[in-house]
Amino acid sequence: MKNKKVLRFFLSFIVLTFVSCSKDTDDGFKLLQKALETTARGNTQTYLYAYNGSKIVSIDGTQERTDFTYTDGLISKMVTLNKTNQLLETIEYSYFKGKLVSVSSVGNYKIKYTHNADKTVSFEKFTLGTGNVEVKEYHGTLHFTNDNLTKEERIYDNSLAGEESKYSISFDYDNKRNPLFNIAGFKELLNQNDKISINNNVISTVITSTSINGQITSSATTYKNAFTYDLENYPKERVSESTPLASGFVGYLKIEYFY
Length: 259
Fold this sequence. Notes:
16-stranded antiparallel barrel, mainly beta, 1 helix
């Protein structure tokens, strides 16, 4: 069950891709117009985005649309709808002195953040029960190098008595521009994981889970990304692959970027 959660958690990283309706401007400033995803089975999805300047307004995907709201130059709300305009999720962001302090998925969960003196960020995630009662699911720490998220560590608080489950995910980066580099306010969204590291692109991800006695409860899984770039060092194509899972399936995803 935990392995499935980890897989879903990783796959969610690569689904959200941003596009803009604007063209290239001077000095290599680019906003993405379209992203085309293709899986190993040949399934495709297209994502088209609209911007107001460098502020993202909406993303219109093949299966759903996400609308964005800004407050004081920072993203304060994301509303996701399906193709029949039924509400799927509302996420609200709160800040203090320009730094994210809480994320709330209305009726689902809440994440609270503390920005530490050593540049790490501590966090706690709570699920919301009846009456919005908060039940802590896990807590952990985010580590950064050169403004890129390099490691997330978690300790689960809903383990059985006497047990402790840990989870970590580590990222390595190239030295090129991320397609999301010029999106206003996006790097503050700590719940978006490696996507907040808009300076560079993730070339390798390793996920590991352990128990209190140090035994590995699920083999470490590695996800690798290979990029091709344009003359301004923005990605034109990303191919993502994972190591084989227990089922024998090897994950694959190609994303083509159009500016």
